[in-house]
Design a protein that fits this description.
Layout lengths: L5 E5 L7 E5 L5 H16 L20 H4 L12 E6 L3 H8 L5 H10 L4 H24 L3 E6 L5 H6 L2 E6 L1 H10 L7 E5 L19 H9 L3 E6 L3 E5 L8 E2 L12 H8 L7 H10 L2 E3 L7 E6 L6 E7 L5 E5 L2 E4 L7 H6 L3 H15 L12 H13 L10 E5 L14 E4 L1 E6 L4 E5 L3 E4 L5 E5 L6 E6 L2
Parallel strand pairs: 3-4, 3-5, 5-6
Antiparallel strand pairs: 1-2, 7-21, 8-10, 8-20, 9-19, 11-14, 11-18, 12-13, 12-17, 14-15, 15-16, 17-20, 18-19
């Protein structure tokens, strides 16, 4: 599809430069998602790489020792708070069609299948929530700065005592990916509970009553809650390549790489001292500057292709496997994609009951009644709940999706827990995907290590209710 791009620079009170583009395309939803991530990643491209010089390799310990090195809840008084707001679809459309009046924009969106009134309604909800959070902070004499995801920079992260996201789980994940250690508290506020659950955010009752949550925090009526994250060390020719944004239906349009933005959009350069130093010291090896809060996927870009790689779990012998890729998750991510890959349905449990009855109790009254819906549901729930574990646990869970084991001597567990996983690619167009958003090339010969460390945990807040 031929693209027509117009580039403009605008001054923003929250950000030195806000860059927007205009693309005449019917795939406005896809463009919107890509636009959000491309600009955001360009602004945060130079996030400081994690220092691997002083790593505690004891992955079996819990996160409890982290608490001893930070302010107790009773004495925590944030003076500077960074509010990261959701960049709504309507805001994007206004920037993309800056030459149109409000009426013309409404007609333009309607002609392209979008509901202008719905976009406006939900935009107002997000805006009101963000303003509500700011008002609560200001009333308590807490200095705050408000940015959207494009203005969310390392400098502002370091400036703040606490970070609050106003949006959904996507905004929360975006903020979490860039916090480099466990010293910066992150709180999520679900700005529109009518459209999303917000698993990573505060309970929805605080969405329009954030003052209650803030007062609880200022009164020390909370506990530190640590969510472990996955650190990725990448080796190979593409280790220092810029990541690609990966979204639904991405292959339907031209792939946009961040490296291209420098040449196409002539963005102001940022210092690359840290990365260049690492590149000189370690050759083709680096720790990726993003930590996975939910999960990491490793496999071919096209789901129809077989993913082929070597894999080593902890200190056990490596093995080769063909599959549909592997997913490595945290305790936080064990309720998400990992859960849905592995969960059983009542239909499966009922069928297993029938097989057990035939194998063990042939000719007898079946002790396991597959028509007993309550029993079937209890067994189903019990198995599925076993897939979920604490976000604070310093342990990864992995699953090899659709392993091809016929005719092989594969004798490893396709699903298990691990403290360290090493994967070497034997693929041609593969990627490592972090939290469903950032995608790093991972082709034949590249190697990646996945580990957890206490200092990488995300510091969250759990209110005492």
């Amino acid at each position: 599809m031929k693209l027509y791009l117009n580039i403009a620079m605008l001054r923003s009170c929250c950000d030195p430069y806000l860059i927007f583009l205009k693309q005449y395309s019917s795939s406005s939803s896809l463009l919107f998602n890509r636009y959000l991530h491309l600009i955001h990643r360009k602004q945060s491209k130079n996030l400081m790489s994690l220092n691997t010089g002083h790593i505690n390799s004891n992955c079996s310990s819990s996160s409890s020792s982290i608490v001893d090195h930070f302010t107790e809840p009773a004495t925590f008084r944030p003076k500077k708070v960074l509010v990261v707001g959701k960049f709504s679809r309507l805001e994007f459309e206004k920037h993309r069609n800056a030459h149109l009046s409000e009426k013309e924009l409404a007609e333009h969106l309607e002609n392209h299948g979008s509901d202008y009134k719905s976009l406006l309604y939900h935009h107002d909800i997000h805006t009101e929530n963000r303003e509500h959070i700011v008002k609560c902070l200001q009333q308590r004499n807490i200095e705050c700065r408000v940015v959207n995801r494009f203005g969310y920079t390392e400098e502002l992260i370091n400036w703040s005592d606490m970070i609050i996201t106003s949006g959904g789980d996507g905004t929360y994940l975006l903020a979490a990916n860039q916090i480099a250690n466990n010293s910066k508290p992150l709180i999520g506020v679900n700005s529109d509970p009518s459209r999303s659950v917000g698993h990573l955010c505060l309970d929805k009752r605080y969405s329009n009553n954030f003052d209650r949550a803030l007062d609880a925090i200022l009164s020390g009526k909370f506990e530190w809650n640590f969510r472990q994250r996955i650190r990725i060390t990448l080796e190979g020719e593409s280790a220092f390549n810029d990541p690609v944004e990966l979204h639904d239906q991405q292959l339907m349009q031209r792939e946009c790489r961040f490296w291209d933005l420098d040449n196409i959009y002539q963005l102001p350069k940022k210092s690359t001292t840290v990365n260049e130093k690492t590149k000189t010291t370690n050759g083709r090896r680096r720790v990726l500057p993003h930590l996975a809060l939910n999960e990491v996927f490793v496999g071919e870009s096209l789901s129809s292709r077989v993913s082929y790689f070597e894999m080593a779990i902890d200190n056990r012998a490596k093995f080769k496997i063909k599959s549909s890729g592997t997913t490595i998750c945290t305790g936080t991510g064990s309720t998400s994609w990992f859960f849905n890959i592995n969960k059983l349905t009542p239909q499966c449990v009922s069928n297993i009951f029938n097989i057990i009855n035939e194998e063990r109790f042939s000719g007898q009254p079946p002790p396991l009644d597959p028509s007993d819906q309550q029993l079937v549901q209890r067994v189903t729930d019990r198995f599925n709940s076993s897939l979920i574990y604490s976000p604070s646990k310093l342990l990864m869970a992995y699953v090899i999706r659709d392993p091809v084991v016929f005719g092989t001597n594969f004798n490893n567990n396709p699903r298990d827990f691990a403290q360290k996983i090493v994967i070497k690619s034997r693929m041609t167009d593969a990627h490592i995907v972090i939290d469903g958003g950032l995608s790093y090339a991972f082709n034949d010969g590249s190697k990646a290590s996945f580990e957890m460390f206490e200092q990488d945990a995300l510091r969250a807040i759990k209110l005492k209710e």
